[in-house]
Task: inverse folding
């Protein structure tokens, strides 16, 4: 039966091999034979994981699209313009996140008295695709049909009169399929206040059409058969499944408090270029090799174990970047490199303590004591860095903290690196040392 140290060693080896496999390029050659790594497609019950296992690069490394929208503030009171513009920015950011675009930047600006929202989307080179991803304004409203007869005319005319029931009164929207036709539709549920408005509107329009207007176009005009008090309605039309899903996402993200208009769209080339990316990779590899050489020269076989832990740290980090996925920008790469330094720092603290402890006790006891006594310093240093990372990430979107994409990218990779370095420094290195560092035989 396998002993506990050997079991842990096997687990570490399997983990390292799996992370290395994920970290490899999609196509690579071994002894002249080309190998193509398959994508991950796992479906177990409700758990599902699909990934193309590619490194997603940010706007500065891979280029992308930039869209500039202008907000129409004519009907917004002066004291509420700032809140309205912030609301538009937050809603657009929610839509972008729902579509899965990582490391996007959505910010507001004021130019010559015009309020604008600037959206940067890495990896999206087709601006039309980017516009579709963000979606239209998705301003939903309900209107009543009011018939009137013009003097001198025998034919009555109909006028659409907007009600106060809008997309702002929505609570939830989801795709459903019409029970009789099987056509995709959108089921909407109103808030408590919206449900009351809907009940009043349907109550006074029994036997009449109730047009549903989306972005100034009538998408559906059902006839009200009876007063609807449940706070639910259905938007039907000639939707495809993808169109219905897109509309549901737009509605769930929230109705825009003010109309916006696309005034500029352009494709941004990578600001660093392929040459700069290669130079950054080379610089990182040289840095890793120098750190590894320093550890071996300073601590001998202890340093060699630390280098193995550093390799495992690197492949686990890269594997997680692909699986999550994390969009890498240059600041994100800087955060990863900084976390490598923190990982090595933990080993140095342990090994320096080991030098002292092995003079007073046997090797195995000295190792355990070294890890135990170095833990306080390792914990304090890493907790401080974790707190700093969370402040830079600003996960709660506090207004008094920054919220830029590049800074968040740096913070995310640094935070992930710190957590992974704690695992490799305390678990991986410790168990490798237990297995391979033995007392010298006399």
Result:
């Amino acid at each position: 039966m396998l002993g506990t140290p050997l079991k842990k060693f096997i687990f570490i080896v399997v983990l390292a091999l799996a992370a290395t496999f994920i970290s490899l390029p999609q196509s690579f050659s071994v002894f002249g034979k080309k190998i193509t790594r398959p994508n991950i497609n796992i479906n177990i019950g409700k758990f599902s994981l699909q990934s193309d296992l590619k490194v997603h690069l940010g706007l500065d490394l891979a280029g992308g699209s930039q869209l500039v929208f202008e907000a129409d503030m004519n009907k917004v009171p002066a004291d509420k313009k700032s809140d309205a513009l912030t609301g538009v920015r937050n809603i657009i950011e929610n839509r972008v996140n729902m579509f899965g675009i990582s490391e996007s930047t959505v910010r507001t600006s004021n130019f010559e008295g015009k309020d604008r929202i600037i959206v940067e989307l890495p990896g999206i080179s087709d601006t039309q695709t980017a516009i579709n991803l963000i979606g239209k304004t998705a301003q939903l409203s309900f209107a009543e049909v009011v018939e009137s007869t013009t003097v001198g005319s025998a034919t009555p005319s109909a006028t659409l009169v907007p009600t106060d029931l809008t997309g702002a009164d929505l609570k939830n929207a989801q795709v459903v399929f019409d029970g009789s036709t099987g056509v995709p539709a959108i089921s909407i549920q109103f808030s408590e206040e919206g449900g009351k408005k809907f009940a009043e509107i349907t109550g006074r329009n029994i036997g009449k059409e109730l047009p549903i207007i989306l972005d100034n176009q009538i998408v559906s005009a059902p006839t009200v058969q009876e007063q609807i008090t449940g706070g639910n309605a259905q938007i039907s039309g000639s939707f495809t499944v993808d169109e219905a899903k897109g509309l549901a996402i737009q509605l769930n993200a929230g109705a825009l408090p003010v109309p916006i208009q696309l005034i500029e769209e352009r494709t941004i080339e990578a600001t660093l270029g392929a040459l700069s990316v290669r130079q950054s990779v080379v610089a990182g590899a040289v840095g890793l090799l120098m750190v590894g050489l320093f550890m071996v020269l300073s601590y001998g076989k202890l340093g060699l174990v630390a280098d193995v832990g550093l390799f495992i740290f690197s492949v686990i980090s890269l594997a997680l970047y692909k699986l999550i996925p994390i969009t890498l920008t240059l600041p994100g790469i800087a955060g990863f490199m900084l976390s490598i330094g923190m990982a090595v720092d933990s080993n140095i603290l342990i090994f320096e303590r080991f030098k002292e402890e092995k003079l007073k006790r046997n090797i195995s006891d000295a190792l355990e004591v070294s890890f135990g006594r170095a833990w306080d310093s390792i914990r304090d240093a890493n907790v401080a860095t974790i707190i700093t990372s969370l402040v830079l990430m600003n996960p709660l979107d506090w207004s008094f903290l920054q919220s830029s994409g590049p800074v968040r990218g740096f913070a995310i990779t640094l935070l992930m690196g710190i957590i992974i370095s704690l695992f490799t420094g305390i678990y991986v290195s410790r168990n490798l040392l237990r297995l391979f560092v033995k007392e010298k035989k006399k």
Notes: Residues 140-255 form a domain with the Gyrase A; domain 2 fold (CATH 3.30.1360.200).
